User: Which sequence fits this backbone?
């Protein structure tokens, strides 16, 4: 990629390139924009109790969830609106994006990628695009990949989106999974930086021996497409096994990242964990020795939105003033696979958006229960 004649001084590595003349490799990749999109239809625990053998108290005490959102539009619509809002916050245009990553496990279509749908809806015509499926760890994986690609010098403006429509997969006869999940999207813009900011370190892993603990078994070529019940895409979920592995796995990844940077737990300003279960989040905070006041927690309002949980929580932390210039923000997640990951983001100089987008979802004239009525009838 580079000829030997490189200037390695400073924060930018500048090399001669035989095709383009100059190739600039950045040491850092800063988050310059952020945005989220949550569907308007709210399904409360009381709504759940009308179709499931459950109560508000049963759900809250086991998960911390009070309500979740149900999308009336394809997942790519959520992703596109979140993307437009992130670009506006960075004062950037879709045509400037040259890398678009959609972290999701609930794609619009198997072929093509959801990222291609998002590119078309946003007009990001110059972007290389692909989906990344690491389950609930997807956003950290996507941010790590985008950071590496930006630091290589080959790309200048990345849009990383975590977006899910998990309610589409739910079997309403399975109470333990139906109460957990919701829909939503969050996005960030990432650009090369001369300052020490952005994702400074990350570490990713997977425990494939436990992949059966969280699985949608029929959504792929391993299944027999000709059997009568092939269209049943149930989320199979072993909550105890996931809980047991989640805290241990996230803590391991966090320790690797912190040791790489030479940081102590006391150096952490804010922890943004994957929002899967309030008990798991509390256990992780205890393990890290971090008070819950320094932990982003919004699972009560949205449930588990998989790859969207961390970017959505990041947007809300910025709105609430919990992230300041120079803040050390620790990200940690686990998900289907069982994937896991952690990363340390040092926030840049700006914590307020440079602009706002007028992008909105189409109007919704149904309640959450009405949107899900056919699925409830068929699986409940």
Assistant:
């Amino acid at each position: 990629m580079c000829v030997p004649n490189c200037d390695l001084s400073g924060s930018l590595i500048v090399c001669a390139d035989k095709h383009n003349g100059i190739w600039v490799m950045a040491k850092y990749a800063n988050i310059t924009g952020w945005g989220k999109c949550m569907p308007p239809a709210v399904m409360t625990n009381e709504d759940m109790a009308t179709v499931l053998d459950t109560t508000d108290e049963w759900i809250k005490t086991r998960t911390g969830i009070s309500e979740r959102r149900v999308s009336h539009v394809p997942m790519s619509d959520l992703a596109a609106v979140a993307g437009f809002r992130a670009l506006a916050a960075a004062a950037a245009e879709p045509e400037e994006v040259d890398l678009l990553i959609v972290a999701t496990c609930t794609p619009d279509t198997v072929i093509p990628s959801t990222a291609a749908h998002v590119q078309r809806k946003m007009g990001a015509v110059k972007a290389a695009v692909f989906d990344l499926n690491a389950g609930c760890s997807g956003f950290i994986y996507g941010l790590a990949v985008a950071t590496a690609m930006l630091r290589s010098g080959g790309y200048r403006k990345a849009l990383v989106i975590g977006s899910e429509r998990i309610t589409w997969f739910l079997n309403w006869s399975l109470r333990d999974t139906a109460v957990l999940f919701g829909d939503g999207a969050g996005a960030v813009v990432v650009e090369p930086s001369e300052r020490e900011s952005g994702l400074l370190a990350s570490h990713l892993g997977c425990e494939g021996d436990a992949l059966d603990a969280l699985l949608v078994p029929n959504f792929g070529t391993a299944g027999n497409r000709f059997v009568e019940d092939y269209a049943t895409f149930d989320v199979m979920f072993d909550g105890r096994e996931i809980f047991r592995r989640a805290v241990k796995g996230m803590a391991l990844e966090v320790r690797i990242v912190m040791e790489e940077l030479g940081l102590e737990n006391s150096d952490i300003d804010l922890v943004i964990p994957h929002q899967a279960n309030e008990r798991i989040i509390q256990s992780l905070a205890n393990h890290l020795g971090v008070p819950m006041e320094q932990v982003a927690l919004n699972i009560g309002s949205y449930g588990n939105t998989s790859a969207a949980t961390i970017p959505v929580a990041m947007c809300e932390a910025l709105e609430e003033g919990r992230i300041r210039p120079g803040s050390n923000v620790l990200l940690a997640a686990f998900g289907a696979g069982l994937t896991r990951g952690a990363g340390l983001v040092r926030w840049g100089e700006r914590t307020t958006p440079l602009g706002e987008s007028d992008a909105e979802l189409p109007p919704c004239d149904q309640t959450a229960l009405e949107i899900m009525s056919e699925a409830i009838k068929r699986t409940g």
